[in-house]
């Protein structure tokens, strides 16, 4: 079945975000419409300051739009209360921050287990899941280290494990490969890709065409607006001379 026939996991409707007011007003997003379906991985590219992180934080319920709507699995999250939003974020949304945002006082395993424990599963089960997610990121040996005892790339992989633990339906990743060497970056992308192939919807911000090539679709932002979209199948057919298969 075509993914287009299913309800999108994420729908952004005429989203705007203005930071500040008066002379310092910045129009970070100007009327964004975007749907991401189950199984889809979308790459967002664009110059520094074009609104990529703003788009992701609003899609993840971490910031509010100035106008417009954000639907996650059909629920308008801008209309949810604080508790409802927090619960939806823990259950449905995995978020990889541009600067990792690990909790310094918790070990790698505790950081990864935290969202699951907050969601009410037993500490023991949460730890088992956390260790499995860390092992997937090749970090099994570092489970009991604190963030300041790990390299930047290792912290980034812990942050990715935390976003993927517990089968979230929507995975949002802001430059998830920023601190990684290219081989580790590719393995992170392969993991994101397999999560989407299993039915999740994903958006990742990246500056690297090599990593964007893992996505089904690339969305280009400039000055807060979508200026171009490319299907991977379009690019493939240009390269191979064959008609798009999708
Ligand atoms: N809290 C804020 N207050 C005021 N302006 C902000 C705030 N956050 C972002 N902006 C502005 O909004 C615009 C978009 O910022 P955003 O962080 O979304 O860009 P970006 O595409 O993620 O850039 P980068 O590639 O450098 O991470 C920029 O002009 C930025 O200065
Ligand atoms: Mg950014």
TrEMBL record:
Keyword Transport assigned: yes
Keyword field: ATP-binding, Nucleotide-binding, Transport
Pfam families on file: ABC_tran
Gene3D superfamilies reported for this sequence: P-loop containing nucleotide triphosphate hydrolases (3.40.50.300)
Superkingdom per UniProt: Bacteria
Signal sequence residues: none
Residues of the ABC transporter domain: 10-243
One MF term in the entry's GO annotations: ATP binding
Any single Gene Ontology cellular-component annotation: plasma membrane
Keyword set includes Transport: yes
Protein name: Macrolide ABC transporter ATP-binding protein
Species this chain originates from: Streptomyces caelestis
Lineage start: Bacteria, Bacillati, Actinomycetota, Actinomycetes, Kitasatosporales
């Amino acid at each position: 079945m075509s993914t287009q026939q299913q309800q999108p996991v994420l729908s952004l409707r005429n989203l705007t975000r203005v930071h500040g007011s008066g002379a310092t007003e910045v129009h970070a997003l100007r009327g964004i419409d975007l749907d991401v379906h189950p199984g889809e991985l979308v790459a967002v590219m664009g110059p520094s300051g074009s609104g990529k992180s703003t788009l992701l934080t609003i899609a993840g319920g971490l910031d509010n739009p100035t106008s417009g709507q954000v639907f996650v699995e059909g629920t308008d999250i801008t209309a949810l209360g604080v508790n409802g939003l927090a619960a939806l974020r823990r259950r449905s949304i995995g978020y990889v921050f541009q600067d990792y945002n690990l909790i310094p006082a918790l070990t790698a395993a505790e950081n990864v287990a935290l969202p699951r424990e907050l969601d009410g599963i037993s500490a023991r089960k949460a730890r088992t899941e956390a260790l499995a997610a860390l092992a997937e990121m090749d970090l099994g040996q570092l489970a009991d280290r604190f963030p300041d005892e790990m390299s930047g790339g290792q912290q980034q992989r812990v942050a990715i494990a935390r976003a993927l633990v517990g089968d979230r339906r929507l995975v949002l990743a802001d430059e998830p490969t920023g601190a990684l060497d290219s081989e580790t970056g590719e393995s992170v992308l392969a993991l994101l890709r397999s999560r989407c192939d299993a039915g999740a919807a994903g958006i990742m911000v990246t500056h690297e065409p090599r990593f964007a090539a893992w996505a089904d679709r690339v969305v280009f932002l400039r000055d807060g607006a979508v200026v171009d979209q490319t299907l991977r199948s379009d690019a493939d057919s240009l390269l191979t001379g064959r008609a798009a298969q999708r």
